[in-house]
Structure formats: structure tokens, C-alpha cells
Amino acid sequence: MYLRIRTGNYFFRKFINNNIAVYRFDERGIGKSEGEYDYTATSLMRDVVYAFYKLRRMNELSNKKIGILGHSLGGIASIGAFGKGCEFDFLIQMATPVENHGAFIKYQAKTNTDGFYTVKNKSTVEVINFIDEISKSIKETEDFKTSENKAKKIMKRMEFEKGNHIVNPLIIDLIKHNHEENYRSSNVPILYIIGTEDRIVSSKNEVIALKKMDNPMIDIKVVENVNHWLSDKLAPTQMEKSLYNMNEKAIYEIINWTLEK
Questions:
Q1: CA torsion sign, 125 to 207 to 134 to 109?
Q2: What does the alpha-carbon distance between residue 36 and residue 51 come to, in Å, rounded to a whole number?
Q3: Ramachandran angles phi, psi of 195, nearest 5°
Q4: What is the distance between the alpha carbons of residues 172 and 105, in angstroms, rounded to a whole number?
Q5: 25 and 38, same domain (yes or no)
Q6: What is the helix (H) or strand (E) element at residue 164, kind and residue range?
Q7: Could you tell me if 147 and 187 lie in one domain?
């Protein structure tokens, strides 16, 4: 059995064709899901925990391995659920931020692929310094309101009146997620796979962080010339279905690694 987050239908069929059963879900608000929800990694992590224990209690799965594949935000939720006690038999982390305190957000501000990190009258360096100051001030255990108030004081001090859009629940929550220790101490197999042309998560920075951990349970695969979705369309300017047409080499690496586990 395979618990899976945030990938396209073609990839889904590849697992089925290789006799790997799939339980698939995405973030709340996707498809026909309703009710109150947010888009934070913490919220998604809670759903992962619930899904895992629901599957583990099913009699027909009692002798089956359950692994999890998480892409990007889903990867943060996956490693977070693992840290919360979900005994996955293996993890596949696809284009997932690894470094603590939302360090990848500064990389996003540098690449600024969709213009989100553009702040009027501020340079890229100033925006990165602004994010860094917020990261240093926020504590993992404090509530959002406390973190938001701290961020607003930094905005005022650094004269970032137009930077309010950066100080949102998703960004604040990501800064609070710190999972390096979960990777470092993992005693179950982990595949970390990322593309060299990822403009949302730095393949260089995250691979360096993982190698420093020197954990033999972590296999690292870097796929040349693919983007954040491990597809061939470089520097995409907007979300579209073609982004989920994963590169065949990336699919091969993931499927073969899974079959070995």
C-alpha cells in the first residue's frame, strides 16, 4: 500500500502497473472538498497522520508495507508526520525543503519565479534580509498572532510597508517547520529526489544539507534538466496540467527504488 500526495494521474498509473497499490489525496480545497481549512503544512500534516492510522487499522493491510510520497509542501507534511510517530516503512521526498526555519523561502525570493516576492521600492537582497529577520524572530511554539505581530514590527523597522503579503499564515508556518533531525535520525529508508532546474527549492542547498547528515538510510537522486515537478518544462510561468507530466527518468528512479523496498 502506498500513501501518496500531490502528483499527476500518469504517475499514479505507473505505480498501479507495477503492482503498487495507491491511496491518494491532496490538500483540502482541491477537487470537491469543502469546509473550513487552510493551506499550511501543519494542517496537511495532521491529515497525513489521520490517513496513516486509518490505513494501518485496516485488517486487509495488516501485513502490507505502507510508504509515503510527498511532493514539496506534501513532503514537509510527510516528514513531519514521520516525526510525530507515523511508522512509515519508507518515505519518498520529492522536491521537498529540508533546511530548518524555512531557509528555502529565501531561495524562492531570489528566483522569484511568479513575482510573489516583489516588494515595491525594495531590492531582492533587501527582501531576502527581511525574510531572514522574520525567520530569526519567530519561535516554533508561539501562535500565529504572536508571530504576525513580531513580523509587523520588523516590517516597520525595515520600512517594508508594502511587504504585508509575505507575512501570511503559510509562510509563517513554513518557517516554524524544522525537520532536519527527523532526516538525520531516520532508521527507515528515504529517497530524496529533486531536479537541477528547480526554482522553488534549491537542489544544491538541500542536497548539501542532506549529505552533511551522513545518514546511510537516505538515498539522494538529482535528475538533470527537470523542474520542481520533475517535468521537462523549464521556468514555467504559470500552473498548467503539463507540469505534472513527469520526466521518465524521474519516474524510473522512483518506481525502481520503491520496488526494492
A1: positive
A2: 18
A3: -100, 150
A4: 10
A5: yes
A6: none
A7: no
Q: What is the per-residue pLDDT across 207-230, written as a single tens digit (0 to 9) for each?
A: 999 999 999 999 999 999 999 999
Residues 20, 83, single domain; the answer is: yes
In which residue are the cell numbers 490538500 written?
27
Overall number of domains in the chain = 2
Of the three residues 175, 192, 213, the one that is the final residue of a domain is 175
The whole-angstrom separation of Cα 71 and Cα 228 is 9
Mean of the per-residue pLDDT values for the chain?
89
Written as one letter, the residue type at 222 is V
On whether the CB atoms of residues 43 and 28 are closer than 8 A, the answer is yes
Question: Where residue 2 falls among pLDDT bands split at 50, 70, 90?
Answer: very low
**Alpha-carbon radius of gyration of the chain:** 19
Backbone angles phi, psi at 221, to 5 degrees: -125, 125
pLDDT per residue as tens digits for the range 17-63: 888 888 877 766 555 656 666 678 999 999 999 999 999 999 988 88
Q: How far apart are CA 32 and CA 254, in angstroms?
A: 29
Domain boundary at 128, 152, 175, which?
175
Q: Are residues 138 and 203 in the same domain?
A: no
Query: Do residues 8 and 68 share a domain?
Result: yes
Rounded distance, CA 176 to CA 148, Å?
A: 12
Rounded Cα distance between 70 and 68, Å, is 6
Q: What are the distances in angstroms from CA 127 to CA 89, 90, 200, 204?
A: 40, 37, 16, 21
Give yes or no: residues 46 and 118 share one domain. Answer: no
Q: Find the domain containing 135 and state its range.
A: 109-175
> Higher model confidence: residue 241 or residue 85?
85
Chain-centroid distance, C-alpha 59: 31
